[in-house]
Amino acid sequence: MGLVCWSYLVILSCAALTRSVQIPIQVPPTLHNFKSTMPEIWDFNATPSLNSTSHLIFDTVGSLAQHWTNTRYRNGHTVVPGTVPIGTLLYHGTDQSEVPTEPDWIATDPDHSYVFCRTSSASGNSGCWHLTLVVTRPLRVLYFDGSSAAKMQGGTMDSQDITVWGQVKPEWTWNERKRINDLCEWGQKFGLDGFMRLVAFFFEIMLCDFANGVEIVSHLNLDPGKDAHPAGPEQELPSSLSPSATYVLQYRSIEAGGWHNTYPGETRVKLDLNHLISFYDTNLFPSLVFARFGQERWKHRLQGLNAVDLKTFQARLGEVLKQNDHAGSGVDWSTLIHVVVDRYAERLEILHYLLNTTTTAEHVKRVQGHLRSMLVQHILYTSMPNSGSTNYSWAVPVYEHCATTHTRYTSSTPSLSARMTKSESLILHSIQEVSKEICRVVVGMWAGGVELGFDTIPTSPSSSSAKLDPETATTIRQWKERTEGLMAWLDWSVWVRCRPECGYEEICYLPTWPFLDGPDWLPWPHVDEAMQLSGEGGEERFSVRPTPKCIRRVEPFRV
Ligand SMILES: *[C@@H]1O[C@H](CO)[C@@H](O)[C@H](O)[C@H]1NC(C)=O
Ligand SMILES: *[C@@H]1O[C@H](CO)[C@@H](O)[C@H](O)[C@H]1NC(C)=O
Ligand SMILES: *[C@@H]1O[C@H](CO)[C@@H](O)[C@H](O)[C@H]1NC(C)=O
Predict the structure, then answer these.
(1) pLDDT the model gives residue 467
(2) Is the Cβ atom of 51 under 6 angstroms away from ligand 1?
(3) What span is annotated as the signal peptide, if there is one (predicted)?
(4) pLDDT confidence of 463, banded at 50, 70, 90?
(5) Do the beta carbons of residue 452 and residue 475 sit within 8 Å?
(6) 350, 356, 497: which to mutate for ligand 2, most atoms within 8 A of CB?
């Protein structure tokens, strides 16, 4: 590929530059005129299988350690090993003046641990204790995605339960002491130092040994504030958020959580995507295909894992934790996923907006222009229909090039494939399938528009206001549905926002356990059986689908 000398002013220097540095590269003739390798799989009518989970793997892997998606979809499906690097600070708040001698919980932001900095009569009501630790050797942790520390029934703890107890244990939802002890004991044989989970708005680490791999930076006796809540049961959040002095601190905690809302999320734990296990892997866990069938994504759970698949999970987990697998190919998967998301998220949203507001021929031309602009890097000089063509076969190379552009090299280079771990192959496949579906829909609409002459609609002041003919109106309606269908299938959380946008004194908040209400915080009843969050039906405030809303970020919090 040559340098593009894009302006007269730079032509001279550009010419000089190309002469001196450009080395002729032999481009194989096939790469000039992209030829389809397997025309039969590039069928514009072939929709993804109903049981396909590629979009779910793509979205969950792309959302690891990020709040927004994992608050929206509370039931985790991914288990990933990770490390906390040397020098990372970790925080622990308590009413005890001693450093914990058994497994305990720590936060990555002090705003969160301070919530647990409480005073108690046992400590003579003389302030609270806040411990800062520093990591002195890479800590090995296992991360459970989803809202994995939300003490709700309905699936948030499924993946932990299965990891530590081999089955879902709703009766131990609140038994956090047993959970942490059992997890730490189980993890010993793999040299795990802890477990990372998402609770409310922050990431916590269940640290197994406060004397191993961490050192004390400070252990301060702090002022818990005049509204300080008394020390409650272990690892339980304060029972209410009242619009008082504590509220501002609670708000600070929500705010700190918001720093990790979107990609790249919480980066203080380095996740090893090459060794992740996804319960959406239909080859490893076919029993879950059946369990999920007909269920909306909100309700996907792991209860349906059968004995054979449980054995598979345990074996695979042992494999990844003992790192018997290869190191991996070196491909940066999360970046690659976000390259695809960045490329299409906003453009699809605008496409939908344009289709939703198309009433004139001029608007149709605008839609066609937008579609074309999304695809120009794939539209070959020869991509043109014969007159009267209606089967889009001329557009197949555009579809295939669009769909394979990000993965073609990785998937077709044997030396790379040989180094890829099973987890990487799963991620690669999900990127391939997601790219394929986006391109099937976008190229399909664009090619349809070309055949219908949308590129060349003559526009004049009179036609710009004229109503659409019924056929065109039908096509536009169908395109709108196709775009909606694609966006619903992809289900990217970047599209979930507060509408209308929040004011400057507000933030967009996705209600989450245990503060599901935002500013009108209701008292949190103490571990009332009925409140054990069935996750569906019943309590309106624990509805399965969290909907974002604006809450105030400066006083007065309640208006
Ligand atoms: C999807 O899974 C269900 C449940 O296992 C099965 O009955 C159905 O045949 C599958 N459909 C396809 C298209 O594979
Ligand atoms: C589509 O248009 C309708 C009617 O103008 C409007 O109410 C709706 O909010 C629009 N939808 C989107 C997603 O823009
Ligand atoms: C598509 O139409 C062209 C003519 O326009 C024809 O040559 C070709 O065979 C058709 N392809 C299929 C798959 O029907």
Answers:
(1) 82
(2) yes
(3) 1-20
(4) low
(5) yes
(6) 356
Nearest Cα to 247, choosing from 72, 119, 115, 351? 115
| Percent of residues, the chain, with pLDDT higher than 90 | 65
CA-to-CA dists, residue 340 to 54, 65, 261, angstroms: 14, 19, 19
Å from CA of 402 to ligand 3 middle: 21
Q: Is the CB of 353 under 6 A from ligand 2?
A: yes
CA gap 161, 167 in Å, rounded: 6
At residue 542, the pLDDT reads 52
Q: Name the amino acid, one letter, at 404.
A: T
Instruction: With beta carbons less than 8 A apart as the criterion, state whether 76 and 144 touch.
Output: yes
Q: For ligand 2, atom 9, name the residue with the nearest CA.
A: 356
pLDDT digits (tens, 9 = 90+) for 138-177: 999 999 999 999 888 889 999 999 999 999 999 998 899 9
Question: What is the Å distance from ligand 1's center to 279 Cα?
Answer: 17
d(CA 271, CA 286): 26
Measuring from atom 13 of ligand 2, which residue has the nearest CA? 353
Residue 391's H or E segment, with its range, is none
Residue at 251: amino acid letter? Y
Cα 406 to averaged position of ligand 3 atoms, centre (Å): 29
| Ligand 3 centroid from CA 42, angstroms | 14
**What is the pLDDT at residue 154?**
87
- Amino acid letter for position 148: S
What counts of helices (H) and strands (E) characterise the chain?
18, 12
pTM for this structure? 0.89
CA–CA separation, 36 and 131 (whole Å): 61
CB neighbours of 32 closer than 8 A, spacing ≥ 6? none
CA of 388 to the centre of ligand 3 (A): 10
Name the residue with tokens 């209410």: 240
502-541: pLDDT as tens digits? 999 999 988 887 766 543 343 343 333 333 343 333 344 4
Q: Let me know the angle formed at the C-alpha of 487 by 348 and 423, rounded to the nearest 5 degrees.
A: 105
* Nearest ligand, CA 288: 1
Structure tokens given for 398: 């555009």
Domain extent listing, the chain: 56-322, 333-495
Could you give the C-alpha distances from 365 to 384, 400, 457, 459, in angstroms and in order? Answer: 18, 25, 7, 9
Q: Which residues contact 178 (CB under 8 A, 6 or more apart)?
A: 172
For 183-202, letters b (16+ CB in 10 Å) and e give bbeebeeeebbbbbbbbbbb
38 Cα: distance to centroid of ligand 3 (angstroms):
16
Ligand 2 atom at minimal distance to the Cα of residue 352? 13
Residue found by looking up tokens 């130092």 in the block: 193
pLDDT tens sequence across 316-362: 999 999 976 678 999 999 999 999 999 999 999 999 999 999 998 88
Position 87 pLDDT exceeds 90: yes
Among residues 182, 194, 199, 204, which one has the least CA distance to residue 83? 194
